[in-house]
Amino acid sequence: MKVVAYILMFSLFLNSNLSIAQKSETIKNMFVRVYDLEGNKIAKGRIAFINDSVIGLRHGEINLSFFMRNIGKIKTKKSGGNNVVKGALIGSGVGVLVAFATDTEDIYSDGDNGGIIVSAINGVFLGSVVGAASVALKDSETFRINGDFDQWKLFKAIVVH
Questions:
Q1: Which pTM was predicted?
Q2: 64 or 104, greater pLDDT
Q3: What residues are paired with 62 via a beta bridge?
Q4: Crossing angle, helix 80-102 and helix 114-135, to 10 degrees?
Q5: Phi, psi (deg, nearest 5) at residue 146
Q6: Model confidence over 24-76: pLDDT tens digits?
Q7: How are strands ordered across the β-sheet holding 142-144?
Q8: Which residue range forms the structural domain that includes residue 65?
Q9: DSSP readout, 7-73?
Q10: Whether 60 and 106 share a structural domain
C-alpha cells in the first residue's frame, strides 16, 4: 500500500497542471513602439509583461516599464524604414551573387570588379523599392491610449491570449 501512495505522490508532483497554483497569462511576442502624451517616442521593444496599469518592454538587455497614464499611443510592428533597409541589404547580396554567377565581362565592367559593384548598387536600389512596396502590406496597428483606462483594457485584451 505504501508503494501505491508513493507512486501517487510522485505522479502528482510531476503533473505540471497541479503543481502550479496560479496560471500566468500568455502574452504575444509583439514588438511595439510606445509614445508619450505629447507624441514623442519614449521606448521600443518586445512586450515582457502587462498588467492593469503598467507595460514592461524588453529591448536587448534593457527592461523598461511605463505607467498607462503616461502613454499616449502604442504602435505595433517596426517602422517602415526597417523594411527598406532590409530590402536594400538583401538586394545588394542578391546583386553580388548574380554578378558572381554570371561572371561575364559586360559593358558596365570597368576592370576586375566593376560588374560586381554595379550589380550590388542595382540590387540595393531594387531591394529598397521592394522594401518600400512591402510597407503597404504591413499590418501595423496604432492604439491611442491617452492615459484612458478603457483604451488600455482594449489594448491589453489584444495582447494577452
A1: 0.59
A2: 64
A3: 59
A4: 150
A5: 50, 40
A6: 456 767 889 999 999 999 999 999 888 888 999 998 888 999 999 999 999 88
A7: 62-67, 54-59, 41-50, 31-36, 71-76, 142-144
A8: 23-77+139-159
A9: HHHHHHHH-HHHH-SSPPPPB---EEEEEETTS-EEEEEEEEEE-SSEEEEEETTEEEEEEGGGEEE
A10: no
